[in-house]
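ARCHIVE CARD
CATEGORY: sequence design from structure
SOURCE FIELD: tokenized fold
FIELD CONTENT:
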């Protein structure tokens, strides 16, 4: 059953490394992910290992793959591309094409409901091993499309962290919304793949103190890898002098719930930091999160996933500063 696996991988557990270590350059490999940032990172790390991108290894964005590989070869009319700007005009709007442009949120639905488009056979004809990264971001009909890959002859590995869901490949009304709010429902829906929730449950990135904080305060199970013996501190900072030192120190990444660009510091938003890692991190607590932090109710935070992502970017120290105490660092324009 190693051929079809769902590998649940906590933050910093070596998910990308696992994909690259498993690559056999003699085989025909396909890697699919959602964000362009992640595509670039995977390509960079493959090249670092092999000196170049092997001829038989291909890295695709999900929409690029669905459109150019699965749909276009079967469609006789000339297509003009993917329409990312189209928005449904009502809950009854189920269009897939807008002129000759394919509506991105309908791509998977169209493929799943066109019996004359045998994308599964085409994938099997071209690839031996398939790796889908950031599986938690696949939603709606894209999620159903991923499930259909369980019938392939090729090896298929799905890798991701349910709790790092900060993006969505597509939304189609309430289609599948409940699945992505409960990890047990999510795993059950993917039971056509063998669950591996052991191999990548230890974080190489995060020190033990950070893993303990995530477990105890956020309520997400993450284990510390004993090979990482870095000592670190977790500290709530509200004294002006220390705040000034942290904000001025560009080696400490400042992570904001939103609108990091408004502040004069080395900052980024929580969700956008996914995939990154930094020597030290300072998480800026917006009013809602500050309240939950003080009440020790972070596990019920609506933005829990993004907060978890922000806290687990650090390889060392983790600081927390209330947003209302850094207003003087806002850009004047």
């Amino acid at each position: 059953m190693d051929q079809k696996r769902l590998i649940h991988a906590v933050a910093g557990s070596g998910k990308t490394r696992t994909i690259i270590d498993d690559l056999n350059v003699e085989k025909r490999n396909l890697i699919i992910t959602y964000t362009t940032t992640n595509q670039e990172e995977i390509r960079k790390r493959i090249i670092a290992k092999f000196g170049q991108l092997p001829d038989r290894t291909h890295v695709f964005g999900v929409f690029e793959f669905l459109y150019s590989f699965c749909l276009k070869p079967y469609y006789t009319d000339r297509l003009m591309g993917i329409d990312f700007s189209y928005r449904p005009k009502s809950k009854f709007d189920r269009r897939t094409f807008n002129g000759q442009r394919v509506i991105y949120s309908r791509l998977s639905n169209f493929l799943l409901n066109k019996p004359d488009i045998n994308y599964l056979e085409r994938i099997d004809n071209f690839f031996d091993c398939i790796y889908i990264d950031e599986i938690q971001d696949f939603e709606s009909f894209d999620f159903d499309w991923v499930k259909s890959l369980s019938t392939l002859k090729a090896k298929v590995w799905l890798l991701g962290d349910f709790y790092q869901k900060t993006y969505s490949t597509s939304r189609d009304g309430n289609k599948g919304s409940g699945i992505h709010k409960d990890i047990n429902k999510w795993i059950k829906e993917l039971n056509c793949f063998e669950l591996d929730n052991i191999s990548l449950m230890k974080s190489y990135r995060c020190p033990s103190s950070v893993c303990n904080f995530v477990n105890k305060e956020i309520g997400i199970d993450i284990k510390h890898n004993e090979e990482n013996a870095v000592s670190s501190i977790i500290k709530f900072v509200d004294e002006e002098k220390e705040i000034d030192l942290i904000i001025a120190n560009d080696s400490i990444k400042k992570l904001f719930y939103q609108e990091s660009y408004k502040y004069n510091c080395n900052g980024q938003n929580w969700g956008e930091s996914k995939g990154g890692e930094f020597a030290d991190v300072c998480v800026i607590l917006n009013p809602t999160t500050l309240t939950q932090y003080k009440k020790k109710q972070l596990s019920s935070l609506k933005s829990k996933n993004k907060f978890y992502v922000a806290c687990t970017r650090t390889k060392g120290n983790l600081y927390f500063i209330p947003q209302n105490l850094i207003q003087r660092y806002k850009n004047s324009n």
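CARD ANNOTATION: The two ends are 58 Å apart (CA to CA). The chain has eleven helices and 16 strands.
SHELF: design records, drawer C
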